[in-house]
Write a structure and sequence with these properties.
Chain lengths: 321, 313, 298
Amino acid sequence: MGEKVLEVISLRVYYDLPQGTVRAVDDVSLDVRRREVIGIAGESGSGKSTLALAITGLLRPPAKVVSGKVLFNGVDILRLSEDELRRIRGRKIGVIFQDPNTYLNPIYTSGFQVAEVFEAHRGIHAKKYLNEVVKLFRLVKIADPERRVYAYPHQLSGGMKQRVLISMAIAERPDLIVADEPTSALDVTIQSEIMDLLAEIREETNTSIVMITHDLALLFEVADRVAIMYAGKLVELGRASDLIKDPLHPYTKALLSILRYERKKKLTSIPGSIPSLINPPPGCRFHPRCPYAFSKCSKIEPKAVDIEGRLVACHLVGGSE
Amino acid sequence: MSLARYLIRRVVQVIPTFVGALFFMFILVRVLPGDPARLIAGPEALEEDVRRIRELLGLNKPLYVQFVDYMVSILRGDLGTSLKFGTPVINEILNRLPYTIALALVAESIALSVALPLGIISALRPRSKATYISSVISLTGSSVPIFWIALIFIYIFSVSLRILPSSGADSPRHIVLPSITLSLLLMGNLTRITRSAVIESLSSNHVLTALAKGLKYRVILIRHVLKNALIPIVTIMGIQIGSLLGGAIVTETVFAWPGIGSLLIDSIFYRDYPLIQGIILFIVLVFIVINIVVDVIYALIDPRIRDVLWRTS
Amino acid sequence: MEDELILRKVEEARKKRLKEMWSVFKNNRMAYLASYVLVAMYLMALVGIFITPYDPYDFDLSRARQAPSLSHPLGTDELGRDILSRIIAGAKYTLGISLMSVTIGALIGVMLGLISGYMGGLVDTVIQRAVDVALAFPTILLAIALIAALGQGVVSLIIAIAVSTFPVYARLVRGSVLQVINEDYIAVVKLLGKDPWYIMFKHVLPNITSPIIVQSTYYMGLAILLTSSLGFLGLGAPPPTPEWGSMIGSGRVYLFSSPHIVVSPGIFILVTALACNLVGDGLRDTLDPKSRMFIRRV
């Protein structure tokens, strides 16, 4: 750990929709260090997926970067040309998407689709790289890899397809892997296998991993640091072990209590619902659902404060009580 | 291997339909007002001539026997004898078939060479002129009466400008107007479906994956967008064969193009019932066969379908 | 008392939805305009015979093939009849025949689809085979075959086109029936002893009303083109019926000298078919915007 692979600085990403402007990511800052696994947790609608797209340079209209920077190895990827971005994608930054069923093209073999990563960055048609793909498949523990490279996606199970996606992401040994809900579409038993695989990959390579999920329990098993997002804002960020023992933000507390109480992993039982991102509540966005809210919470947005390596955005913490 | 089995299965599936069509035509002819034997013999004939003709044609046998005879002769390729020409129906059909095939192929090619680029461009650049043109074509293609636009074309190009011939098939130039007219029929829906297929394909998730791999935009477009869009496009092409055949009938009539479409219409006015029946059955058979071919092409494009066949054979 | 209140609320909600749909439809300016055109055409069909400037059947060879002029705005045809009058009178035939055949075809198709889907078994198989046979013919070919057998005439025309259109409805409805029939609440209703037709009407039909309406509008356009094509080929209503397609067919010989005979009826056919398609698009966008499965010409 040490140097920063990725640095997100005051990023704002808005969507221009006919219904209004959706403030999906609203002034979020975080950093990812080498070899660390950082988890980004939040309910759906928290802005985490948009953040993932921004980090990987995959934002498309109507999404718009309003302000901020995303520094990858020191370079602001938001300011790069499409061509320069293309060279980074797949080679320096790998992406694992969430639904192996729709994120793989049904009319090409799985081996071919993985080989395309090599083609993109080394030239020469993909089919020449099938041997390398077999090695990759072995790495991600796909059984019988020599046969499986010729298999079409519909011939593979969900877990296998996800491993194919993972092998796509690690093919060129990227510096950073962004995994967007890598296990949501899978069975519980397969989920833990995939998580183990990701942990192994982290061990054996120098890759940093950004893991985005709504599944807290999973996160706390693998992540070094965890960031909690709510309604487009980053509300807490800190070491996983610290967060579990001593959550500071009320939202984090609520999440963890659900986790312990119900042993279920879905974030469903906090009273109230996620606010609209077009017209977020004034002040702290969590205040309508916060059991500790007081007058200041509905007027002034809390700024993120650094407390012993932990970032928290709450009026109750860090000097404004 | 499984492809062959699929083929056989499809053919077997289709047999009852074809027999049904045969039955339908058989009934239809019997519904005709008047006694076929008398019609054939002509108004001057004597009673015994009519009786002889009836025996000759087997019209006095019980209906089901007639039907079986009928089916057997169809299977042998014997579609009867033309009343007007006196020659076997099948010969008349085969003589004129190449003209219809030529017309159909040229018309389809024209339609594809306009609709595909137009559809693709208007999908990739939604605000361009291409979108406007494609909506206009799509709308007019499905609303314009072919026989009328054919006449308009004839007036403009044959009568006024005198640069293209209006009837017959004596030179390559003769195919120009009929095929353009026929292609208008197909262009409309083809453009529309191409456009929506490409739009649909563009927004699929696997395109995002392709982008994340760092592939070049052009490669992504061809491999992951266009090739996937082929499936619905082939679908519509298969469905349009019916319109193509039907449109050919009208187009050939207007342009006096010597194909089987104009032969059909002529034979109706000659009351040449064996010929009418033969042509209709022939067209139905061709239609059925083309549908099977389209299904096979599907299996070739989409590996998922190939596998379904694999597992169910 | 409470039931009444609830019923009234449901009624109000329904009316509100209908009003919303109408305003969405109105937004589509083309479709809105097109619907007015359609209404105008149908009005013409209904009252046409009373408002023709001349007698559409009165022929006089000395007036034949006159170009459009003040006294004959669309000119006269090959037998000296006023074309404008014939077009007005002909609307009844072209549009009426189309409307009737699509209506009959839809009714037959929907009935068959309901029976086929609900009864299943042998009845279903037989009906489906019949539909397969009908679909094995290109549309115009089936119509031609029927007319060749039944002879010329308005009735044959209607029967021919109705037979060409019923298969699509049968398939559509059967699909929906099969979907609904598997749902649990149908089993409950059956247990309660309700009559199957009741189930059919109350539960299946509402779901498929929109696709049927949209499909019918498209089929209207198709039927108009089909009717006029058959008329043009000489297979429609016999002369001197002023059906628009037949008018073009008889005037065709004089294309060189008097193109006006052919041009105006065709424009009317084009405009009406176009209007049907535009209204169909508008209805589709209003009722079921996600569905792009409707093909204007099969």
